[in-house]
Write a structure and sequence with these properties.
The chain has 21 helices and 22 strands. The chain has 729 residues and is an alpha+beta fold. The longest helix has 69 residues. The radius of gyration is 47 Å and the shape is elongated. The termini are far apart.
Amino acid sequence: MERRVNRQTAQARTSGGTFLSGGGEMGELMRAHQWADTPLGILDRWPQSLCTAVSILLNSKYPMFIGWGPELLFFYNDAYRPILGATKHPVALGRPMQEIWSEIWDIVGPLADRAVKDGEPTWSDDLVLMMNRYGFIEETYFTFSYSPIRDETGGVGGMFCACTETTGTVIGDRRLRNLHDLAISAADATSVTDAKQRCIAVIETNPVDTPFALFYRLQANGKMLLTGAANAEQGQAIAPETLEVSNNIWPFSRVMRGQTVVVNDLSVRFDDVPLSSWADPVETALLLPVTDLGQVETNAIYILGINPRRPLDDDYHSYLQLVANNVATAVSNANAFEQEHQRAQALAELDRAKTDFFSNVSHEFRTPLTLMLGPIEETLRHTTLTGRERDALDIAFRNGLRLLRLVNSLLDFSRVEAGRIQARYEATDLAAVTTELANNFHSACDSAGLQLDIVCPALPEPVYVDPDMWEKIVLNLVSNAFKFTFEGTISVAVSAVDGHAELTVRDTGTGISASELPHIFERFHRVPDAVGRTHEGSGIGLALIQELVHLHGGSVAVTSTEGKGSTFTVRLPFGIDHLPADRIGSEPSRSSTGNNVSAYVEEALRWLPEDIGKAANDVAPPPASPDGARRPRILLADDNADMRQYVRRLLADHYDVEAVEDGQAALEAARASPPDLVLSDVMMPRLDGFGLLRALRADPDLRHIPVIHLSARAGENAQVEGLEADADD
């Protein structure tokens, strides 16, 4: 046989077949082919146009084929051999094109007819063709053209095709897009369930490469739970909701040991095998072990279906592994976010509980403080006391004021943190107000041997501030400067700098170390071993200042040299563009919790030695009512007996006061004998202050009586709530 082939090859070279010279393997096959048994006949009878076309074909490195004659007999070169695959090469040589490509003839046949019968060239770009090249129908993509070949008669003798297989490019781009979408789909997922659902939605957009996907996770009871499925319904035979690791349906035991397992007999194992995009049953699945971030043991298994029209080669395997990795990463990130969110919720709930606690206990704190401070102050004003008695009461009074200020500072800070405090910004002569506030410390500074310099020239324009908040800012800063300055000067200055009003409080005190400066405005932070007039303090003063300054759209900064002093600088922008428009007004909205100048000054004086720290706080008693004048009648409702007695005693010199223990008793007393004024607490048993107010306003005989809510609920929200409920004040 070999001798016969050699003889035929020699004959082709000598009897007009020189155009078949070269061409590699296909040149050898063409020279050895029995062309006499085909419609073309022996080589000497071939038309020159065919000989020329075949010569070009054989000597090209580009994939090409020729279809010649009515049957389009097939010629191809070495570069085209991989396109034919194992099932078509070399039998395709010299056979009719329709016979070779029978599985795709419905697509390429009409294109060939256009080239041969109509003489029109065609062009196809990334055309999908389902070819049988390796014993199965394969998804492939090609870019090619069919061009007519003119013969010696001027007609079309055949067609020429130059082609490029783009299967790898098309499928690679498709998979890359899918992986990209998968990577970003769950970037902002807020829960594991949300992340898994987003990943599943992306996987379902590419059913060609992932016909189905099942996601199983190991549970605490040792069972595998189906946590998600793409292109498959949970509960089907192929997708049980729960499975033992040692089940007979899926080889989970092997995968849990870290092995990647391929299952090739899905239609044998299950009756409900999902179909591919080409309507073929999916026969193969890849089982991948998944380990959570930071873990070493496999705790999840992902099952990914395989496209039956693509081989599970290295590229396909890598793609599926990346799909699994992306899903696992999304789930891990979402799990971390979920845990962090839960921690944040717990902290937020704790913060809300803290704020609610401060708000709720304010009534309990302020009531006993009022009952202590009021009688003490009254006694100090109106009673002749011995020196020891007065000193004792002075101590009690000063510490009561300090306790009240600390309670109010905590309440203010908790309200700021919770966003429950709102400023009312007013056009303010900041220089004048600051001067007035700082001047209150002259006596304390004089007593301590310090110089207080106040340099606050008029600013070019008013500054919009909440007066109560600005008072807290200035008093806290000056008080702090006094606390940590033993000799030298405290300077308070206001100036205009670069479109801002700038408050500077400078001292020659003990200063702050460089390591502590970054933490100085943190809440509850106290500088360890700080040298001051006292070690007392809550650690929230500077933090409160920072929050209040931020509410004004400003900034606060500190510079300090240990042993030489500190400088605190507050900058507030001029104008109103940086402020909420609905919070700007001409009428002040006081939300003070009771902080005032005297509390700060009294506390500052208490830091001084006893022989120089005493301060008087005498206030003249109110004038008595003229003899014989009608005494108005006040109805007082409060559930605290001490508070009832205290308020009644305060008012008894000028009014007839009837005190009752709750709103229901007050309503009954008012109906029995209408008063001139009702003073009512808000929080009371049986009928609270708002219930009493509604009942009075609903009674035609009592609706005209003015009602004042007298309560420790002194915040702005409480004031608004009371006024909206139709209280007079």
